[in-house]
Amino acid sequence: MGFFPRMKTLNQYLLTAAVALLGLTSISLAQAPAGGGRGRQTPEERVKQMKESLGINDEQATKIKAILDKNQAANQEKMQALRADTALSQEDRRKKMQEIMKPTNDEILAVLTPEQQTKFKEQQDRRRAGGAGGAGGGAAPAK
């Protein structure tokens, strides 16, 4: 009968470990960006996404990455200040974020072909409406 108390202790350790693992998984999922990866992306991630959804070529990708790199720091500071402003309604915050991103998006549009511009604008519209689309002027996943 000396064997069974050890089994009970082992089962308690295994149960504790399983609960701890589930807890850590929940925490990491809670910290993931909302919208299935629609959180803030690096310029490299955004360019990759645009290659897939807009079909940009390597020359366009280089130009767009340079635009994103150039504007990233200033835009991030403005966005952080905006997120910290709790006096704004969600709608006002969204409008101000669009205003912040407009110069960057306009520069990106200048690099795209007319067909790509149309797709890019459609993706932005879907994102603003809360539908599928890339982050911060990026692109939606290819269909």
Report on this structure:
This protein has a domain at 42-137. The radius of gyration is 22 Å and the shape is elongated. It contains six helices and no strands. The termini are far apart. Helix 3 (43-54) packs across helix 4 (58-84). The longest helix has 29 residues, at 3-31. It has 143 residues and is mainly α.
Strand content: under 5%
Shape: elongated
- H/E element string? HHHHHH
Structural class: mainly alpha
Computed Rg:
22 Å
Q: Mean pLDDT, nearest integer?
A: 77
Distance between the termini: 63 Å
Q: Characterize the biggest β-sheet.
A: none
Portion of residues within helices? over 70%
Runs in which pLDDT lies below 50 for 5 or more consecutive residues are 28-38, 131-143
Strand tally, please?
0
Question: Helix and strand layout, with pairings?
Answer:
Elements: H1 3-31, H2 34-37, H3 43-54, H4 58-84, H5 90-111, H6 114-128
Helix pairs in contact: 3-4, 4-5
Short account of what is shown:
The chain is mainly α and 143 residues long. Helix content is 76%, strand content 0%.
Features:
single chain
